[in-house]
Amino acid sequence: MFRGFNAVASGMIAQQRKTELLTNNMANVNTPGFKAEQAVIRSFPQMYLSSINTAHIPTKDGFNIKGMSNVGGISTGVYMQETLPLFEQGQIRETQLTTDVALIDGLLPTDAETGDVGALFFTLENDAGGEMYTKNGNFALDPNGFLTNPTGHYVLDTNGQRIELQSDEFTVSESGVIMENNAVVATLGISFAAQPGALMKQGNGLFVTEGGEGLPTAAGAAGVSYSMQQGYLEGSNVDAARTMTDMMTAYRAFEANQKILQAYDRSMEKTVNEVGRVN
Questions:
Q1: Which PROSITE patterns match (predicted)?
Q2: How does strand 131-134 pair with strand 119-125?
């Protein structure tokens, strides 16, 4: 009975966390470059039960011997093991702002070990001077003329340097070359992750590597191609209709576990108040 309580409670907790994840996806359905998260729910190891039997040996002294017989397995519950971002390309939409740049995927190789399709990112400078990565090309110029992302982090070029501009009257070619006053200023730094699932999400559409090391540049990488489009943004890849359906499914699963928990509670109440009463 108490094992049942634990299994049902773990199911409710897992579905609650899944609902929170889906709610966050829905809240970012219009966030540029946002990557929807997926929940990975796993079962705890099964517990195998056995019963202890006493066998009587028909001998002169009447020996008894204890033996074990298998009853079967019982689930010990579930848990949310991890959340994984979905790196599929979001819809490209026009904004007509020169500081907006959409990074459009071309050919991306598949990792032979994990089966993951690689992902491309704009390269940013983090607070410690290292690198972080984003798909959000909603850039702006700070008061000093440096190109930054919405969180205020500097956008880096292919040499790992900050990009300084005179005004927002600049152009970005399909290959990421930034020109101002008919002169080349810099080339947007694009990084390639062969195993994007190994990246750590930092919030606000930002990603970092687990060890803090930098990703390799995508320019000239074998089997990698991409393009950029100025005046456009990559939207969120959240499927609103599917997310709503998944939220309803998670809610129904939570509700079903709740009813089972209430049934267990009523059974325990009857056991304590009626079956266990001493007359």
A1: FLAGELLA_BB_ROD
A2: antiparallel
Domain boundaries, the chain: 2-82+239-275, 87-234
Amino acid at 80: M
Sign of CA dihedral 39, 44, 45, 50: negative
In 3D space, the residue among 104, 98, 217 whose CA is nearest the CA of residue 156 turns out to be 217
The length of the chain is 279
Residues 6+ apart with CB under 8 A from 117: 87, 108, 109, 110, 111, 196
User: 39-95 pLDDT, tens per residue?
Assistant: 887 776 665 555 566 555 565 655 555 556 666 656 667 877 778 889 999 999 999
CA 93 to chain centroid: 24
Residue 83 main-chain phi, psi, to 5 deg = -120, 140
Q: What angle do CA 272, 1, 41 make, to 5 degrees?
A: 145
In angstroms, the CA 49 to CA 74 distance is: 7
